[in-house]
Amino acid sequence: MEMKPQRVIADLCRQFYHQGWATGTGGGISIRENGRVYMAPSGVQKERIEEDDIFVLDEQGEVLEAPKKPGLKVSECSSLFYNAFRLRDAGAVLHSHSINALLVTLLSRDAVGGVATSKDVFECTQIEMMKGLAGHGYYDTVQVPIIDNTARECDLADRMADAMKAFPKSHAVLVRRHGVYIWGRDWVHAKTQAECYHYLFEAAVRMRQLGLDASVGEPHVRALEADKGYAAVVASASAGGGKR
Ligand code: ZN
Protein backbone atom coordinates (compact mmCIF):
# COMPACT_ATOMS: atom_id res chain seq x y z
CA MET A 1 0.00 0.00 0.00
CA GLU A 2 1.21 3.48 -0.82
CA MET A 3 2.27 5.55 2.14
CA LYS A 4 0.39 8.75 2.95
CA PRO A 5 2.44 11.86 2.12
CA GLN A 6 2.20 12.90 5.79
CA ARG A 7 3.85 9.61 6.83
CA VAL A 8 6.56 9.99 4.17
CA ILE A 9 7.35 13.56 5.33
CA ALA A 10 7.61 12.49 8.99
CA ASP A 11 9.89 9.56 8.05
CA LEU A 12 12.10 11.61 5.75
CA CYS A 13 12.45 14.48 8.23
CA ARG A 14 13.79 11.97 10.77
CA GLN A 15 16.18 10.58 8.20
CA PHE A 16 17.34 14.04 7.08
CA TYR A 17 17.93 14.99 10.71
CA HIS A 18 20.30 12.05 11.15
CA GLN A 19 22.07 12.95 7.89
CA GLY A 20 22.74 16.45 9.23
CA TRP A 21 20.41 18.03 6.66
CA ALA A 22 17.65 19.15 9.05
CA THR A 23 19.09 19.82 12.50
CA GLY A 24 18.17 22.67 14.84
CA THR A 25 14.65 22.86 13.30
CA GLY A 26 16.09 23.86 9.89
CA GLY A 27 15.50 22.09 6.58
CA GLY A 28 12.57 19.89 5.60
CA ILE A 29 10.56 18.49 2.72
CA SER A 30 7.28 19.22 0.95
CA ILE A 31 5.34 16.80 -1.27
CA ARG A 32 2.81 17.64 -4.01
CA GLU A 33 0.39 14.88 -4.91
CA ASN A 34 -3.05 14.85 -6.60
CA GLY A 35 -3.52 18.62 -6.42
CA ARG A 36 -2.52 18.82 -2.75
CA VAL A 37 0.68 20.12 -1.17
CA TYR A 38 1.89 18.62 2.12
CA MET A 39 4.26 20.64 4.27
CA ALA A 40 5.86 20.47 7.71
CA PRO A 41 5.34 23.34 10.17
CA SER A 42 7.93 26.05 10.70
CA GLY A 43 10.46 26.08 13.56
CA VAL A 44 9.78 22.63 14.97
CA GLN A 45 12.21 19.78 15.65
CA LYS A 46 12.08 18.00 12.31
CA GLU A 47 13.05 14.61 13.76
CA ARG A 48 10.00 14.61 16.05
CA ILE A 49 7.34 15.55 13.50
CA GLU A 50 4.23 13.35 13.49
CA GLU A 51 1.75 12.78 10.66
CA ASP A 52 -0.80 15.00 12.46
CA ASP A 53 1.62 17.97 12.40
CA ILE A 54 1.63 18.27 8.59
CA PHE A 55 -0.21 21.10 6.83
CA VAL A 56 -2.25 20.39 3.68
CA LEU A 57 -2.42 23.23 1.14
CA ASP A 58 -3.87 23.63 -2.35
CA GLU A 59 -1.73 24.38 -5.41
CA GLN A 60 -2.28 28.12 -4.92
CA GLY A 61 -0.77 28.03 -1.42
CA GLU A 62 -4.01 28.26 0.58
CA VAL A 63 -4.11 26.13 3.75
CA LEU A 64 -6.83 23.46 3.49
CA GLU A 65 -6.04 21.54 6.66
CA ALA A 66 -4.00 22.82 9.61
CA PRO A 67 -2.68 20.60 12.42
CA LYS A 68 -4.82 20.49 15.57
CA LYS A 69 -1.79 21.15 17.78
CA PRO A 70 -1.89 24.87 18.72
CA GLY A 71 0.82 27.31 17.73
CA LEU A 72 2.01 25.58 14.55
CA LYS A 73 2.71 27.80 11.56
CA VAL A 74 3.18 26.72 7.96
CA SER A 75 6.82 26.44 6.86
CA GLU A 76 8.85 29.62 6.27
CA CYS A 77 10.07 27.93 3.08
CA SER A 78 6.58 27.69 1.59
CA SER A 79 7.14 30.16 -1.29
CA LEU A 80 10.44 28.46 -2.15
CA PHE A 81 8.85 25.03 -2.32
CA TYR A 82 6.15 26.46 -4.59
CA ASN A 83 8.85 27.74 -6.97
CA ALA A 84 9.75 24.13 -7.76
CA PHE A 85 6.10 23.03 -7.99
CA ARG A 86 5.20 25.86 -10.37
CA LEU A 87 8.36 26.32 -12.45
CA ARG A 88 9.41 22.66 -12.68
CA ASP A 89 6.21 20.74 -12.06
CA ALA A 90 8.04 19.06 -9.16
CA GLY A 91 6.35 16.39 -7.04
CA ALA A 92 8.61 17.03 -4.05
CA VAL A 93 11.13 19.60 -2.86
CA LEU A 94 13.53 19.35 0.02
CA HIS A 95 15.54 21.95 1.83
CA SER A 96 18.82 20.99 3.49
CA HIS A 97 21.11 22.84 5.88
CA SER A 98 23.92 20.34 5.26
CA ILE A 99 27.35 21.68 6.18
CA ASN A 100 28.81 20.57 2.83
CA ALA A 101 26.10 22.44 0.89
CA LEU A 102 27.02 25.54 2.88
CA LEU A 103 30.76 25.04 2.34
CA VAL A 104 30.58 24.65 -1.44
CA THR A 105 28.92 28.07 -1.66
CA LEU A 106 32.19 29.48 -0.26
CA LEU A 107 34.66 27.34 -2.21
CA SER A 108 34.90 29.22 -5.46
CA ARG A 109 36.33 32.69 -5.29
CA ASP A 110 37.06 34.83 -8.33
CA ALA A 111 39.46 37.73 -8.05
CA VAL A 112 37.71 40.79 -9.44
CA GLY A 113 39.81 43.93 -9.27
CA GLY A 114 42.04 42.31 -6.68
CA VAL A 115 39.08 41.57 -4.41
CA ALA A 116 37.98 37.97 -3.88
CA THR A 117 34.31 37.61 -4.75
CA SER A 118 32.19 34.52 -4.56
CA LYS A 119 31.23 32.73 -7.76
CA ASP A 120 27.55 32.27 -8.34
CA VAL A 121 27.73 28.70 -9.58
CA PHE A 122 29.00 25.42 -8.16
CA GLU A 123 30.65 23.19 -10.77
CA CYS A 124 32.03 19.68 -10.84
CA THR A 125 32.88 17.14 -13.51
CA GLN A 126 33.96 13.52 -13.92
CA ILE A 127 32.59 12.16 -10.68
CA GLU A 128 30.65 8.92 -11.08
CA MET A 129 27.73 10.00 -8.87
CA MET A 130 26.92 12.79 -11.35
CA LYS A 131 25.21 10.07 -13.39
CA GLY A 132 22.51 9.84 -10.74
CA LEU A 133 21.43 13.40 -11.58
CA ALA A 134 18.73 13.73 -14.22
CA GLY A 135 20.19 14.70 -17.61
CA HIS A 136 23.87 14.39 -16.69
CA GLY A 137 26.62 12.10 -17.95
CA TYR A 138 30.10 11.50 -16.57
CA TYR A 139 31.83 13.96 -18.93
CA ASP A 140 29.32 16.75 -18.44
CA THR A 141 29.78 19.58 -15.99
CA VAL A 142 27.21 19.74 -13.21
CA GLN A 143 26.26 23.34 -12.53
CA VAL A 144 24.24 24.46 -9.52
CA PRO A 145 23.42 28.15 -9.21
CA ILE A 146 24.30 29.90 -5.93
CA ILE A 147 22.08 32.73 -4.73
CA ASP A 148 22.90 35.10 -1.88
CA ASN A 149 21.13 34.57 1.43
CA THR A 150 18.57 36.96 2.88
CA ALA A 151 17.74 37.74 6.50
CA ARG A 152 14.31 36.09 6.12
CA GLU A 153 14.03 32.81 4.26
CA CYS A 154 10.80 33.73 2.44
CA ASP A 155 12.60 36.68 0.79
CA LEU A 156 14.72 34.22 -1.19
CA ALA A 157 11.81 33.28 -3.46
CA ASP A 158 12.44 35.73 -6.34
CA ARG A 159 16.17 35.08 -6.62
CA MET A 160 15.58 31.36 -6.43
CA ALA A 161 13.06 31.61 -9.31
CA ASP A 162 15.53 33.68 -11.40
CA ALA A 163 18.29 31.11 -10.78
CA MET A 164 15.98 28.25 -11.77
CA LYS A 165 15.18 29.99 -15.07
CA ALA A 166 18.88 30.69 -15.75
CA PHE A 167 19.93 27.05 -15.06
CA PRO A 168 17.17 24.88 -16.56
CA LYS A 169 19.22 21.66 -16.22
CA SER A 170 19.76 22.02 -12.49
CA HIS A 171 17.49 20.27 -9.98
CA ALA A 172 18.97 22.35 -7.17
CA VAL A 173 19.64 25.91 -6.05
CA LEU A 174 22.33 26.58 -3.43
CA VAL A 175 21.93 29.45 -0.97
CA ARG A 176 25.20 31.06 0.14
CA ARG A 177 26.14 30.45 3.79
CA HIS A 178 22.81 28.65 4.22
CA GLY A 179 22.08 25.38 2.37
CA VAL A 180 20.32 24.04 -0.70
CA TYR A 181 16.88 23.43 -2.27
CA ILE A 182 16.55 20.25 -4.35
CA TRP A 183 13.51 18.88 -6.16
CA GLY A 184 12.35 15.91 -8.24
CA ARG A 185 9.29 14.54 -10.05
CA ASP A 186 8.18 12.75 -6.87
CA TRP A 187 9.60 12.27 -3.37
CA VAL A 188 11.68 9.25 -4.37
CA HIS A 189 13.28 11.17 -7.23
CA ALA A 190 13.83 14.27 -5.07
CA LYS A 191 15.49 12.10 -2.42
CA THR A 192 17.87 10.40 -4.88
CA GLN A 193 18.72 13.74 -6.51
CA ALA A 194 19.46 15.11 -3.04
CA GLU A 195 21.68 12.17 -2.17
CA CYS A 196 23.70 12.61 -5.39
CA TYR A 197 24.03 16.39 -4.94
CA HIS A 198 25.12 16.01 -1.31
CA TYR A 199 27.68 13.38 -2.33
CA LEU A 200 29.10 15.77 -4.96
CA PHE A 201 29.18 18.66 -2.48
CA GLU A 202 31.08 16.54 0.02
CA ALA A 203 33.46 15.29 -2.69
CA ALA A 204 34.17 18.89 -3.75
CA VAL A 205 34.87 19.98 -0.17
CA ARG A 206 37.18 17.03 0.48
CA MET A 207 38.95 17.53 -2.86
CA ARG A 208 39.59 21.15 -1.93
CA GLN A 209 41.12 20.01 1.37
CA LEU A 210 43.53 17.90 -0.70
CA GLY A 211 44.32 20.83 -2.98
CA LEU A 212 42.15 19.47 -5.84
CA ASP A 213 39.43 21.25 -7.80
CA ALA A 214 36.19 19.33 -8.44
CA SER A 215 35.45 21.47 -11.50
CA VAL A 216 38.60 20.19 -13.26
CA GLY A 217 38.55 16.68 -14.72
CA GLU A 218 41.37 14.44 -15.90
CA PRO A 219 43.22 16.42 -18.58
CA HIS A 220 43.53 13.60 -21.12
CA VAL A 221 39.86 12.73 -20.77
CA ARG A 222 38.71 16.31 -20.62
CA ALA A 223 40.04 16.88 -24.11
CA LEU A 224 37.69 14.23 -25.46
CA GLU A 225 34.19 14.60 -26.67
CA ALA A 226 31.97 12.56 -24.42
CA ASP A 227 30.55 10.39 -27.19
CA LYS A 228 33.95 9.16 -28.44
CA GLY A 229 34.74 7.31 -25.25
CA TYR A 230 38.06 6.17 -23.89
CA ALA A 231 38.39 3.12 -26.15
CA ALA A 232 38.38 5.35 -29.24
CA VAL A 233 41.24 7.43 -27.85
CA VAL A 234 43.30 4.38 -26.95
CA ALA A 235 42.70 2.98 -30.45
CA SER A 236 43.67 6.22 -32.16
CA ALA A 237 46.71 6.63 -29.88
CA SER A 238 47.94 3.11 -30.63
CA ALA A 239 47.45 3.83 -34.33
CA GLY A 240 49.87 6.72 -33.93
CA GLY A 241 47.31 9.44 -34.40
CA GLY A 242 46.52 10.11 -30.76
CA LYS A 243 46.95 13.52 -29.28
CA ARG A 244 46.94 14.00 -25.57
ZN1 ZN B 1 16.90 27.24 5.53
Commentary on this structure:
The protein is of the alpha+beta class. It has helices at residues 5-18, 78-88, 99-107, 157-166, 187-209, 219-222, 229-238, and strands at residues 28-33, 36-39, 55-58, 63-65, 92-96, 109-112, 115-118, 121-125, 141-147, 172-175, 179-184. Strands 4-3-2-1-5-11-10-9-8 form a nine-stranded mixed β-sheet, sandwiched between helices. The chain binds zinc ion. The site of zinc ion has 6 residues, from loops.
Given the C-alpha coordinates, what overall shape results?
Answer: elongated
Give start-end ranges of low-pLDDT stretches.
none
Give the ligands present: zinc ion
Helix and strand composition category: alpha+beta
Helical percent range? Answer: 25-40%
Instruction: Report the sheet with the most strands, covering strand number, pairing sense and barrel closure.
Output: 9 strands, mixed
Radius of gyration: 20 Å
Mean pLDDT: 88
Percent of residues in beta strands: 15-25%
Q: Order the strands across the largest sheet as they lie in space.
A: 4-3-2-1-5-11-10-9-8
- Separation of the first and last Cα atoms: 55 Å
The third-level CATH topology is L-fuculose-1-phosphate Aldolase
The helix/strand order is HEEEEHEHEEEEHEEHHH
CATH level 1 class label? Alpha Beta
Looking at this structure, what is the CATH superfamily? Answer: Class II aldolase/adducin N-terminal domain
